[in-house]
Amino acid sequence: MYFTSPTKGRLTFEQMMADIMGYITGLPSSAYKIIIGSDSQVKQETCFITAVIVHRLGKGARYYYRKKLQRKIKSLRQKIFYETALSLELGGLIARHLAECGLDDLQVEIHIDVGTQGETRDLIREVVGMVTGSGFQAKIKPEAYGAFSVADKHTK
């Protein structure tokens, strides 16, 4: 599993987590939030991007992303559920790693690419339930910038 950092290039999961830990311990007096969001774009295949954002509250952020190509998925419902599942899978790995490093109090948010406007509004209850049932905080549009802004940028 490889991730891309706009500044550091291609990283393994372990290298990404080491970079995140370095960023957090570099300014320990700050508050941090880990945000995970996925988005997708359908062309010949469906390109899924899962972004990991480390937000140093009030002082900027750093992000990484993973790209996954799948067969063409036409169903919006299936796409949204798959995006959410990708975010949850990565959220679980990151939360476990943070707990092993003694940072289990660090908040992990899952940003879901659904909102009250448009055709995804019927899916909100189900995907938010998936996320909160897995122990994470869920954010939907317009607060889900991890999905619709950061991840979306790399699906093109």
Automatic annotation (TrEMBL):
Protein name as it appears in the record: DUF458 domain-containing protein
Protein species of origin: Desulfofundulus thermosubterraneus DSM 16057
UniProt lineage: Bacteria, Bacillati, Bacillota, Clostridia, Eubacteriales
